[in-house]
Amino acid sequence: MRIGIKELVLILAALAAGGLLFAWSGIFNIAASSGHWAITKWFLHYTMHQSVETHAMGIETPPLDDIAMVQRGAGHYATGCAPCHGAPGTERSPVALEMTPHPPTLVPHIEVFEPRELFWIVKNGVKYTGMPAWAGHERDDEVWSVVAFLLRLDELDEAGYRELAHGEAARRGEPLDGPVLAALGGAPPEPLAGCARCHGRDGNGRGTGAFPRLSGQSEAYLLASLLAYARETRNSGIMTPAVSGIGEGELARLAAHYARQAPPDTGSGPAPDEELVEQGRRIARDGVPVDGVPACLSCHGERRRPVYPALAGQHADYLAGQLRLFRDGGRGGTPFAHLMETVARRLDDGQIEAVSAFLASLPPEHATP
Fold first, then answer.
1. How far apart are alpha carbons 110 and 363 in whole angstroms?
2. How far apart are alpha carbons 255 and 156 in whole angstroms?
């Protein structure tokens, strides 16, 4: 029996009308508490896997074995991911377990995806699952840090996870789930829990370049940066959620605390090589006049304005990463960010590596009053 075009059109119209009638009737139960039919669950998961595989094609995976990347990803995972997906020693939130579908524990699922596919999921999120897209969509470097951590997750026990995610708080045996801010008065015990997890209570970070040193910065610059994150003029899927909902008064007290911290006496690590440092010294002190690049230390030296950051003794990898973000238009920041965007666009990768190495080799400076 052959079906003509007219009959086929009628069949399709009847199916469409039946679907609309079913939706209009309200019979279908959309309650999260009802779960999915087995066929629905299979179809959605199959569709998701195929979509991720297709959309992740062509994404190049960078090296993911840098401990600084892993620490950065772990720090965000503890607050941004663990409540839904759990972690070693951390159960999933009861609220998350009432979602449909449930956010899965990740270890059994990570090996199913290639690193580039994990990157795509973390960056873009997944519709109809509650999995959000990355808050700072321009910050691929942050997303790759989360991927670097996820690839280590199956190797971690509770102690290893806490060390990566909570740093000195885990080593001190302090509560890891307290409020970020409490009473930011004189002594800073509990209020800095959220910040200290990554930056340390003394503002010197973890010594790996995973997080910038805050000690030695002026209060004006730190507050301007925190406000830029809160107002989303500085892009970061890690820092924007961290400061979201915190009032300006609390942010000001945080800035004042870290501005009071003394920086270490030495730079952030051994220089890669003398020739590279010497090239960076010339750029930092003399600029590159032929390309219109001013001397870095003319703005960021000892006589800098309080709203400009101190760069001496900062981690080289962090500095290089920020310069690339400025160059590529992915950073944003305070009202002066456009100045750095102009400068960074005139530097090539070699010059960025060189000037970062030189600045990292310098002894840190105290904050400008």
1. 42
2. 34
Rounded to the nearest integer, the mean pLDDT of the chain is: 88
Q: Is residue 207 part of a domain?
A: yes
Are residues 228 and 294 part of one domain?
A: no
CA dist list (Å): 339 to 271, 294, 308, 333: 27, 11, 11, 11
The residue with greater pLDDT, 200 or 63, is 63
Residues 111 and 81 occupy one common structural domain: yes
Domain of 335 in residue numbering reads as 274-361
CB 309 within 8 A of CB 258: no
Q: Are residues 254 and 280 in the same domain?
A: no
Share of the chain above pLDDT 70, in %: 90
Q: Which of 205, 204, 212 is nearest to 322 (CA)?
A: 212
The reply to whether 248 falls in a domain is yes
**Predicted local confidence at residue 1, as pLDDT:** 56
In a domain, 267, yes or no: no
Q: What is the DSSP letter of 362?
A: S
Encode pLDDT of 71-103 as tens digits.
999 999 998 999 999 999 888 888 888 988 889
Confidence of residue 366 (pLDDT cuts 50, 70, 90): low
Q: Which amino acid is at 204?
A: N
Is the distance from CB of 119 to CB of 144 less than 8 angstroms? yes
Q: With CA atoms as reference, report the closest residue to 212 among 62, 68, 347.
A: 68
pLDDT tens digits, residue range 127-154? 988 899 999 889 999 999 999 999 999 9
90 and 152 share a domain? yes
8 A C-beta contact, residue 207 and residue 250: no
Distance, in Å, from the CA atom of 136 to the CA atom of 237, rounded to the nearest integer, reads: 4
Phi-psi region of 30 (alpha: psi -120 to 50; beta: other; left: phi over 0): alpha
